[in-house]
Amino acid sequence: MHLARATLRRGHRCLSTHSSVINALDVPDKTQHKPLPAVDTRCGTPSPDHPQQNWSKQQIDRAAKDHVVFTYGPTDAQRDAVPLLRRGEGSYLYDDDGKQYLDWTSQAVCANLGHTVPQSVKAAVAQQLDTLPYVYGGLGLVEPRARLASLLSEILPGDLNGFLFPSSGAEANEAAIRIARQFTGRSKILTRYRSYHGGTATALSATGDFRRNFIEDAPGFVRLMDPNPMQFSWGRDMADASERARGALREQVLGEGPDTIAAILVEAIPGSAGVLLPPDGYLQAIRSICDEFGIVMIIDEVMAGFG
Question: What is the mean pLDDT of residues 183-207?
C-alpha cells in the first residue's frame, strides 16, 4: 500500500497520494485462512445425576477423576491422596468412612473458629441473603461494611483505621502493593525468600518459596535474606541475631537505593514457609528502616492476623 505524501507549497499544506486506497480497512482480505476444526460448541445437557440430593462415593470419584484440577502439583497424585470429607464439627473433620481428622491447619487458616458455625452467624448470613445478597463495593455502600470497618478501627492497635475488604489473601497483598507503589511513586518491593503471599501473578512474584517458579517474576521484586536462615546463623543469641539481620537488611536497602523501594513486604510469622518466629526486635527494625527512608511497610497477616 502506498503512503500519502504531504508537501508544503507557499505556506499551505497539500496532500497528494499515489494510491486511490488510503484506509487499509477498505482493502479486501485475500489471506487464505485455514478452516476451523469441526468441533461442536453447543451447550450440552446435564446428566440425570445432578438433581440427586446426594452423590455416592463412586459418582464423586468419577467426577473428580474426569473434571477436578488440583493446584501446585500433579492432580492425579493429590486426588488419590486426599480424603473425601463429608462434614466438620469443631476442630475435627470426618471423611466418607466416618474417620475423624484433627484439622491442624484450620483449612489453610481459613476456618480458625472451627467447623461448627454458631446459630447467630447462620441467622446473620440468612438475613443478609434475604435482604441484599450482593453489592459491588465500588458502586454502593451497605450497613455491615460500615459497621465492620468502624469496629476494626476500635479494636486494632495504633492508627490502623482504614479498611478495604478483598476476597482473598492474594487480592489483599496485590492491593497493598499497588497502594504502596502509587503512594511512593517507586516500584521495588522487597520480600523474603521463605514466604508465600498468594497465587495470583503479582502476589506469586512477591512469594519467595518454590511456588514462585510457577510463573516468571513480574519486574520490581527483590528478595531479602531471612532472619531465620537454614545454612548459617546470624548470631549466638536472639539479640545478636536480630541486630545482624537488621544490619544486613539496611545494607541491602542502601544497595538497592532507598528512593527506588516502594515497600518491604513480610509475613509477621511465615506460615507455609515454616511457621518461623522472627528474632526479637526484627519487625521493629523493619519499621525503623521504613520510617527512615519513607518506605511503606506491609505486614502480610492473612494467616496470623486474628490468631
Answer: 93
Span between the terminal Cα atoms of the chain, in Å: 68
233's CB contacts (< 8 A; 6+ apart) are 241
Paired sense of beta strands 100-102 and 221-224, if any: unpaired
CA distance linking residue 302 with residue 282, whole number of Å: 19
198: left (phi over 0), alpha (psi -120 to 50) or beta: left
- Which phi and psi (to 5°) does residue 230 adopt? -100, -30
Q: pLDDT tens digits for 46-61?
A: 999 999 999 999 999 9
Position 46, amino acid: P
**Cα distances (Å, whole numbers) of residue 193 to 34, 98, 221, 307:** 48, 40, 11, 24
Which of these, 185, 190, 219, lies nearest to 202 by C-alpha position? 219
Mean pLDDT confidence for 145-160: 94
The DSSP secondary-structure symbol of 97 reads T
**CB neighbour class for 61 (10 Å; exposed up to 12, middle 13-18, buried from 19):** middle
Q: What does pTM read for this prediction? A: 0.79
Q: Is 143 helix (H, G, I), strand (E, B) or coil?
A: helix
**H/E element holding 123?**
helix 119-131
**Which grid cell sits at 46?**
446435564
- What pLDDT digit, counting tens, does each position of 68-91 carry? 998 877 888 888 889 999 999 999
